[in-house]
Write a structure and sequence with these properties.
The complex is a heterodimer of chains A (about 350) and B (about 260). In chain A, about 30% of the residues are buried. In chain A, the strands form two sheets. Chain A has a five-stranded mixed beta sheet, with helices on one face. A two-stranded antiparallel sheet of chain A has the order 1-3. Chain A has two domains: about 5-160, no CATH class; about 170-350, Heat Shock Protein 90 (2-Layer Sandwich). The model of chain A is unreliable at about 355-360 (pLDDT under 50). Chain A is built from eleven helices and seven strands. The longest helix of chain A has about 60 residues, at about 110-170. With about 350 residues, chain A is of the alpha+beta class. Chain A has helices at about 5-10, 15-35, 40-65, 75-95, 100-105, 110-170, 175-190, 190-210, 220-240, 260-275, 315-325, and strands at about 220, 240-250, 255, 280-290, 295-300, 330-335, 340-350. Chain B is of the alpha/beta class. Chain B has two domains: about 5-150, Response regulator (Rossmann fold); about 160-260, LytTr DNA-binding domain (OB fold (Dihydrolipoamide Acetyltransferase, E2P)), CATH 2.40.50. Chain B has helices spanning about 10-25, 40-50, 65-70, 95-105, 115-130, 135-150, 200-210, and strands at about 5-10, 30-35, 50-55, 75, 80-85, 85-90, 110, 160-165, 170-175, 180-185, 185-190, 195-200, 215-220, 220-225, 230-235, 240-245, 250. Chain B has a five-stranded parallel beta sheet with strand order 2-1-3-6-7, sandwiched between helices. In chain B, strands 12-11-10-14-13 form a five-stranded antiparallel beta sheet, with no helix packed on it. In chain B, helix 2 runs parallel beside helix 3 (about 65-70) and helix 4 (about 95-105) runs antiparallel to helix 6 (about 135-150). Classes of the chains: A alpha+beta (about 350), B alpha/beta (about 260). At the A-B interface, helix 7, helix 9, helix 11 and strand 6 of A face helix 1, strand 8 and strand 9 of B.
Chain lengths: ~350, ~260
């Protein structure tokens, strides 16, 4: 800390007022002891000198401490040592100012006693002041800390909101929708029963995939059913090119998970995995418990990822939502399979999402 | 002569549907074959030389646009003449392509098929079929221009990194990467919560990554621009980059500080 700054601190109006108040208080306390011999004004003046010396020492100690890179003692300890010493020296100094000699002060018994009383009262008041100051500083620090926590909370809330927005924006692929309708249009004449079945799947799919109808959370079982509806539609469209298998651990079927994440992975498996391959392939959805996590795997036997393929916004979207909702405890990883195709692994901590607030809310 | 046609679509039901609708609207049209993917479509065109090709844009192996580029020039007949087909694109939803088709007066139909719309296309095809072949070269020009617009959109940049981690090969989207840093023989690929090593050197990465998204900031470092949290002036003429989601800072060497001058 610079010297100029130090003087500014010492000379601050508030501190001077405090100094005057404390000096007056101390003078009133010691007055009964000296009252019959020393005029009050004189007492006050001596105490003022002592208080001034103590305050300068208090601030200077802090300044020195701040400038030392790694002080061995804490600032408070240092002040507890330096300020009483200052009180004593200040008392002696004030005596010198009044024209007494050192020998006089330490040999004449009443004077020595006077010095002791002075020092004790000064230290007492100094200690109370210091405690008040420390207490106030702690309170201020707690305020700052709670403000920081509040801002962290706001950031988190903002992230969750953004994630929700992203979820709303996650579009139903128009290409998929129109192609499916074209299929249904054809089937209505040819195979009404199958047309009906496809329409049923499409309705189930739309009901969950329409942004306006999405909940913030859903269950694993519901998401798997949505994926199944989607895959059934795709199977009608792609015929024998698409095969799929779904296996889900029944004990975790009711696990609450964020919506449309499994769907994104399945859509990607079709779009980038199976669709580009003439012979098609197989998609496997596997949901299992993995320690404290739910491990959701979507495996395709398809094309694999071409290094220059444009990554869809879907995956990015899933990643951002995962990090907003779970921080580092959830993850999405893609792996190239040894045989062929890609394995997407979505890991979500079990039992961390709030329970459903209501159907269709 | 009876006009012939080829239908190329990867969805069997939609091929059947188009075949049926055409049978109603244009009974004399002979649909000589169907193809289920782009490569198949080219092979069948070469073999059967149909007058009209209905091409689904979205097909495996090769898209309808790629097929059109291949067959658009036609095929030289033994007689020395060129045989060209009239191409009709078929798509369920492709706003970008549809706009381009409209502008270039290219034939297209939308799925699900609407009888009226399909009738218009049929009428146009029939009219053109009867017009002399001389106008064909114009048609080809319009077609090739539109296809070039739609296919040559941009260079293919590296978007995925394959990294061996133990027994598995992780696929990492480059958007996830915060920075690449060369480390002797390897390159460190640093993500928010992990890092992996790959063999591809920085120099090679630099050539393959999209220069708009990835900047070299040091002889040994490439940073994802969207991962930069702040630029701080460093020692001498260097600068330091603070990153989103990582505690470490990256050094921008003097040769690259100009990248941040305007920021």
């Amino acid at each position: 800390m610079e010297t100029a700054n130090l003087w500014v601190q010492i000379a601050s109006f508030k501190r001077l007022i405090w100094l005057l108040v404390l000096t007056t208080a101390a003078a009133l306390i010691v007055n009964p002891y000296f009252g019959y011999k020393v005029p009050f004004g004189m007492l006050w003046l001596r105490l003022f000198v002592v208080a001034l010396v103590m305050m300068v020492t208090f601030i200077a100690t802090e300044a020195i401490w701040r400038s030392v890179p790694n002080p061995r003692l804490s600032l408070l300890t240092a002040q507890l040592v330096s300020v009483p010493i200052a009180a004593f020296l200040g008392t002696v100094a004030s005596g010198l100012v009044l024209g007494r000699s050192l020998t006089q002060m330490f040999t004449v018994e009443p004077m020595l006693l006077g010095i002791l009383v002075f020092t004790t009262v000064a230290i007492g008041i100094g200690a109370i002041t210091a405690m008040l100051l420390v207490y106030r500083e702690r309170a201020a620090r707690a305020d700052v800390e709670s403000a920081r926590a509040a801002s962290r909370e706001t950031v988190l809330q903002k992230q969750v909101l953004e994630a929700r927005l992203k979820l709303m924006q996650a579009q139903i692929e128009p290409h998929f929708l129109f192609n499916t309708l074209a299929n249904v249009q054809h089937l209505v004449g040819k195979d009404p029963a199958l047309a009906n079945q496809v329409l049923g799947s499409l309705i189930r799919y739309l009901r969950s995939a329409m942004p306006q109808m999405r909940d913030d959370t859903t269950t694993l079982a519901r998401e798997v059913e949505l994926a199944r509806a989607y895959l059934e539609i795709q199977r009608v469209r792609m015929g024998e090119r698409l095969r799929f298998a779904i296996s889900i651990d029944a004990t975790i079927a009711d696990t609450i998970i964020p919506p449309m994440m499994l769907m994104t992975l399945v859509e990607n498996a079709i779009k980038h995995g199976i669709d580009p391959v003439k012979a098609g392939g197989e998609i496997t959805i596997d949901a299992a418990r993995d320690g404290e996590h739910l491990l959701l795997r979507v495996i395709d036997s398809g094309h694999g990822i071409v290094p220059t393929a444009t990554p869809g916004v879907g995956l990015q979207n899933v990643r951002e939502r995962l990090s907003a909702l779970f921080g580092a405890s959830a993850s999405l990883e893609l792996r190239e399979r040894a045989e062929q195709g890609v394995e997407a692994r979505l890991k979500i901590p079990l039992g961390q999402l709030p329970t459903l607030t209501g159907e269709g809310g | 002569m009876i006009p012939t046609a080829l239908i190329a679509d990867d969805e069997p039901l939609l091929r059947a549907q188009l075949r049926e609708q055409l049978a109603t609207l244009w009974p004399s049209l002979d649909i000589v074959s169907e193809a289920a993917d782009g490569a198949d479509a080219i092979a069948q065109f070469e073999e059967l030389l149909p007058d009209i090709v209905f091409l689904d844009i979205h097909m495996p192996v090769m898209s309808g646009l790629d097929v059109a580029r291949m067959i658009g020039r036609g095929r030289k007949l033994p007689s020395g003449d060129f045989k060209r087909a009239q191409i009709v694109f078929v798509t369920a939803y492709d706003q970008y392509a549809v706009t381009a088709f409209e502008r270039g007066a290219i034939d297209y139909v939308l799925k699900p098929f609407e009888a009226d719309r399909l009738q218009e296309t049929v009428t146009r095809l029939q009219e053109r079929e009867s017009v002399a072949a001389s106008s064909d070269s114009d048609a080809e020009d319009a077609l090739s221009i539109v296809i070039r617009q739609l296919t040559s959109a941009q260079r293919d940049y590296l978007n995925w990194i394959k990294a061996s981690v133990g027994q598995t090969v992780r696929l990492i989207a480059v958007d996830e990467v915060l920075y690449f840093q060369s480390d002797e023989k390897y390159t460190r690929v640093v993500l928010t919560d992990a890092e992996v090593l790959i063999r591809k050197p920085i120099k090679e990465l630099l050539e393959e990554l999209d220069p708009k998204r990835f900047w070299q900031i040091h002889r040994a470092t490439i940073v994802n621009t969207s991962a930069i949290a702040a630029v701080v002036r460093g020692q001498r003429d260097q600068a330091d980059l603070r990153l989103k989601g990582r505690p470490e800072t990256l050094t921008v060497s003097r040769n690259f500080t100009h990248l941040f001058k305007q920021m």
